[in-house]
Design goal:
The complex is a heterodimer of chains A (498) and B (471). Chain A has 498 residues and is mainly alpha-helical. Chain A is 77% helix and 3% strand. Chain A has helices spanning 5-22, 31-54, 83-106, 111-130, 134-143, 145-155, 160-189, 194-200, 204-221, 230-237, 240-265, 267-272, 274-293, 298-317, 322-353, 364-367, 369-383, 389-404, 406-431, 448-466, 469-497; strands at residues 63-71, 75-81. The radius of gyration of chain A is 22 Å and the shape is globular. Helices cover 73% and strands 2% of the residues of chain B. In chain B, the strands form 2 sheets. A two-stranded antiparallel sheet of chain B has the order 1-2. Classes of the chains: A mainly alpha (498), B mainly alpha (471).
């Protein structure tokens, strides 16, 4: 393969953004820009599907690697994918067109700028998932802050300024320590190339501090308790599309980072800190589920549920078992789809009724039957009903946890029950019951584009819920390889101690 | 006599200054002519320097004058930014009625002084260059003599700068007294053994230089002078003296005092940390953009000094890269500032930017890029500037300096974000003028593109700078 397919995936949205920047729309409504953006993002989606098709699922090596000199002499621009990253890339390219279609209803001002921000964002997100060099990774990881800051700040709700600042400063503070760690790795090993680092390994004495530096960044981004407080604020104030991007993809960067870097580069430290991650994850699962129960704002409830779901993800990753890690990846994909869908669903009613308070709703089933059905599917997906993607993720994670630590698994299982409680209660209060609020009666059922976007999300949630094989196939070899390397390092380290 | 070909740049600019002075005296209303001629002479000067820069290291005049890779590179960015400073400010000084013949001539003479500073290899030559540039700067700061703030800033700068020059001179005399020479190389040879006299000399010299570079705790003049001076002069202050002072810093630390790095390293680390933190914290409450950028430049100088504290070639190079990127970001920022003009009145408060993005999308976008770059967010040029610094700092295992520096960037990010918030999130105000002079537009376009596209080919500067070795 000489064609730089990954670089094209990364660059295509940016080129589209440039194109939109320099086109003027005669009508002033920038409808044409939207079609350009949609076209570009769909093209990117198809390209990523093609990538999945030609991707060799049985190989454990990085594929489609591009390696070019960049910072002369010491850092190369290196991208490549394995079975784990390809799923996240497809998730990104799949969610972006949905976001662009949904822009219709939620964004009324400066549509053109918004589309540019989304496309630039897509570039950075894909970049994060394919970079095979720590510096390149950091570059994409941090650069995503700029468009997201603007998306929250310009198109957000009332307290958007506070939320945008909180989002930006929290994540920046977390990440700068990672930069120190990356540079330190460069001086310790002489390279920041991930593949080479996998081979070389990092001496055990450095691993703990480096792991903590990476952890500070990923924990904020995941977000893990107690640094999760930026997320509810950011979600509530962000426009619907911003929330979708944030929940579906941005949060996954950290989970991906845990697997790729924390486990891959610092296995000994990961082993040392497993208990810490367990405790934080369990607190996240139980505590934020309880907090979610008490929320009156729909978006806030879903935001807290995201924290709880990401708690499952971190728990699964650090069980260091095949099931746990596969389950975590599956859970991330599933959460990407489900939370995106839930935020879009909230956006649907918010746009009609201009409030997100749960008690202002009730009895939507009789006015908006179609909406009630899709919302139900997403609710069930979020609480992990068998037959949806949510179930498979949680089930595998719990399986992995049981293998390692029964107590942890039992506490985590409580989270599943709590999850069911808050989601079903939300559904009951919004969709069932009687219509107390007379203004609700004028609400119209789903429009065509909403049906398109929401059903586009229903299909994969149900399909992969019943038939997870395609996703599992592509991650299996890579996860196994990661685990093998991990166990190899742990055993070596133990042997060297004796 | 044959040596004179190597100082052709200095000779050329001296002659230009004198010639322009004569033209100004004998020809009425020649301010515009001289301004344009000065720009042209700077371009020619740049060409001459670039032409000479291919040569090896050359010592002139009894080893008191040195032309090497460092001085060539610094002179090139000095004169290059001088050209852009004059291009951007041309309309401004006409509008606020400062277009007098003295203005370009003062700028040229201070550039001459800086060039002498950069090339000096002797305490006396160095001091001569320093005073030449300082005297010109005093007048420039108070150039808007009918304005209270401007005269205040000129006087303040004069008093404090004279004080620091005094300290510097005292340090020079101590150094001379204890090392028996004024020549940098000779001082290095003579000061192999530790003695208190030279140590005191180093401290006093560093204090004087830290004042010129406006590093904490010798920064007090910077906010007032930045705010009070005419904006075109502020731009000049923000860039050119810093380039000269930084290169003198490098020269002093790594030529005469190279053996005593255990003496000065702590001082530099302290100054660097103090500047980074103070600059970041103090800028938060500012309302005036020029004052804010003064604090921001204090903080940026802290990062540049952090590179020097490493005592490695890598560190020196990273400082030089930092200052190169810093000057481009400042050029872009001030170009945006020059565009905030409505009915021949310039605006410089942060609130005047409110809602700028609705009427002026391109200007706002440039500001956005510049501010994120100043904050050091990837993938913009400002990130790479900081990246090289931290690369050098961490190589020497100076983790404390690196972590403090990075935390300071997070604090600093807050006030840059605040400006962005005002531009993009706040309600709009009246429209500003949209017609600007060509030089200003070109400068803004070039500098913004540089910042934006730097990541595509980040080795561009590194390759040139990697030739500069001091150790």
């Amino acid at each position: 393969m000489n064609f730089p397919i990954l670089s094209s995936l990364i660059l295509l949205p940016s080129i589209g953004a440039l194109f939109i920047l320099f086109t003027k729309s005669s009508s002033g409504k920038y409808q044409s820009s939207k079609y350009v953006a949609l076209f570009i993002s769909l093209a990117n989606f198809l390209l990523s599907l093609y990538l999945w098709y030609v991707f060799d699922k049985n190989s454990v090596d990085f594929q489609f690697v591009e390696n070019k000199e960049w910072l002369s002499g010491f850092i190369n621009y290196k991208v490549g994918i394995d079975g784990i990253s390809i799923l996240f890339i497809i998730l990104t390219t799949f969610i972006t067109p949905i976001c662009i279609i949904s822009v219709n209803s939620t964004i009324t001002i400066r549509l053109k700028d918004f589309l540019i921000a989304i496309l630039i964002m897509e570039t950075f997100m894909i970049g994060v998932f394919c970079s095979l060099d720590l510096v390149v990774f950091y570059l994409f990881f941090e650069a995503g802050l700029i468009p997201m800051f603007l998306i929250i700040g310009i198109w957000g709700g009332e307290r958007r300024v506070y939320s945008a600042f909180k989002f930006f400063l929290y994540t920046l503070l977390g990440s700068v320590l990672m930069l120190v760690a990356i540079i330190a790795i460069y001086w310790i090993t002489g390279t920041t190339d991930v593949e080479k680092l996998y081979e070389l390994g990092i001496q055990a004495k450095y691993q703990n501090l480096l792991w903590l530096a990476f952890f500070s960044s990923f924990a904020v981004k995941t977000p893990m308790w107690p640094v999760h407080t930026w997320l509810p604020d950011a979600h509530v104030e962000a426009p619907t599309v911003g929330s979708v991007l944030l929940a579906a993809i941005l949060l996954k960067m950290a989970g991906y980072g845990f697997i790729r870097f924390s486990l891959g580069l610092f296995p000994i430290a990961s082993e040392n800190f497993t208990i810490l991650v367990y405790i934080l994850s369990l607190i996240a699962i139980i505590y934020t589920s309880l907090v979610a129960l008490m929320q009156e704002d729909m978006k806030k409830l879903i935001a807290y549920s995201s924290v709880a779901h990401m708690g499952f993800v971190t728990l699964g990753i650090f069980t260091m078992t095949q099931q746990g890690i596969e389950g975590s990846i599956f859970q991330m994909i599933s959460h990407g789809l489900v939370s995106a869908a839930l935020f879009l669903s909230v956006g649907v009613v918010y746009e009609r009724h201009h409030t997100r308070l749960i008690n202002k709703y009730g009895g939507l089933v009789s006015i908006m039957p179609r909406y009630a059905i899709v919302f139900m599917v997403f609710t069930l997906g979020a609480l992990g009903l068998p037959g949806t993607t949510g179930f498979i993720g949680e089930f595998l994670i719990l399986m992995g946890a049981f293998e390692k630590n029964i107590l942890v698994a039992m506490i985590a299982s409580l989270g599943v029950i709590l999850g069911a409680a808050y989601m079903l209660w939300l559904f009951k209060r919004v969709v069932f019951g009687e219509i107390n609020n007379q203004e609700l009666k004028s609400m119209k059922d789903l429009k065509t584009f909403e049906i398109i976007t929401l059903s586009a999300l229903v299909i994969p949630i149900l399909f992969f819920g019943f038939y997870p094989e395609p996703l599992m196939n592509s991650i299996e070899a890579s996860v196994e390889n990661t685990l093998n390397m991990y166990n190899f390092d742990i055993i070596n380290n133990l042997a060297s101690k004796d | 006599m044959e040596n004179f070909q190597y100082i052709l740049p200095e000779i050329f600019i001296s002659i230009s200054i004198m010639l322009f002075l004569l033209v100004g005296v004998f020809k009425k209303n020649s301010a515009n002519l001289i301004y344009n001629l000065s720009i042209i002479s700077l371009v020619i000067l740049l060409a001459i320097i670039i032409n000479l820069s291919s040569l090896d290291t050359i010592y002139l005049f009894n080893n008191s004058y040195l032309i090497d890779n460092l001085s060539n590179y610094m002179k090139i960015i000095l004169v290059g930014s001088g050209i852009f400073v004059m291009l951007t400010g041309s309309k401004y000084i006409q509008v606020i009625n400062l277009n007098k013949i003295e203005y370009p001539i003062l700028i040229l003479s201070s550039i001459l002084g800086m060039m002498i500073m950069i090339s000096s290899n002797d305490l006396i030559v160095f001091y001569m260059g320093l005073e030449l540039q300082s005297l010109a700067l005093y007048v420039l700061a108070s150039f808007n003599r009918d304005n209270l703030l401007s005269t205040e800033s000129g006087l303040k700068y004069f008093v404090l700068s004279a004080l620091s020059s005094g300290l510097l001179l005292y340090g020079c005399s101590l150094t001379y007294g204890f090392s028996e020479s004024t020549n940098f190389d000779q001082i290095l040879i003579n000061s192999t053994e530790f003695n208190y006299g030279t140590t005191f000399g180093i401290v006093f010299i560093l204090v004087g230089l830290a004042f010129k570079i406006s590093a904490v705790p010798f920064h007090m003049w910077a906010p007032d002078v930045y705010q009070g001076s005419p904006t075109s002069v502020t731009l000049f202050f923000a860039i050119l003296p810093k380039i000269a002072a930084l290169s003198v810093f490098i020269k002093f630390l790594y030529t005469p005092f190279a053996n005593m790095n255990d003496q000065w390293q702590t001082i530099i680390v302290f100054i660097s940390i103090a500047s980074m933190i103070f600059g970041a914290v103090a800028a938060i409450g500012q309302k005036n953009l020029k004052r804010l950028i003064a604090y921001s430049s204090i903080s940026h100088m802290g990062y540049a000094l952090a590179g020097l504290a490493t005592v490695t070639n890598q560190g020196i190079q990273s400082s030089i890269i930092y200052i190169s990127i810093y000057l481009v970001m400042n050029l872009a920022f001030f170009s945006c500032l020059f565009m905030l003009k409505r009915n021949d009145k310039y605006y410089e408060n942060i609130q005047d930017l409110s809602g700028l993005s609705k009427k002026h999308p391109i200007l706002s976008f440039s500001l956005l890029i510049v501010l994120f770059s100043l904050a050091g967010i990837p993938p913009l040029a400002g990130f790479f500037a900081k990246f090289y610094i931290f690369l050098a700092v961490i190589e020497q295992s100076m983790y404390f300096l690196a972590i403090v520096g990075l935390l300071a960037t997070v604090i600093a990010a807050f006030y840059y974000l605040r400006i962005i918030k005002i531009i993009y999130f706040d309600s709009e105000k009246e429209e500003y003028d949209t017609s600007h002079n060509l030089g200003l537009k070109i400068t803004l376009a070039i500098s913004t593109l540089f910042i934006l596209a730097y990541f595509i080919y980040p080795s561009s500067i590194t390759k040139i700078v990697s030739k500069i070795t001091m150790i």
